[in-house]
Amino acid sequence: MTRESSVTARYISLVICACGVFGYVPTLLSWSSSNFGGHTKKAVGIAFVISVGQCGSVIGGQIYRQDD
Questions:
Q1: Which InterPro entries match (predicted)?
Q2: Mean pLDDT by 10 residues, the chain (68 residues)
């Protein structure tokens, strides 16, 4: 898509992309929690998965600076 395309087409593309990107999170969390035994290991495993997933936000803020 380009900037010359319609706003509606860009919005629909964004919604479809968001569904694809964020749709794996419940599956990943349920898979990781079912592979650990005990409540403490499950809690630490889920926290680790979420922490690793948030590293992209920290790195993205450093790579794509406002000055650029």
A1: MFS_trans_sf
A2: 75 86 83 87 90 83 72
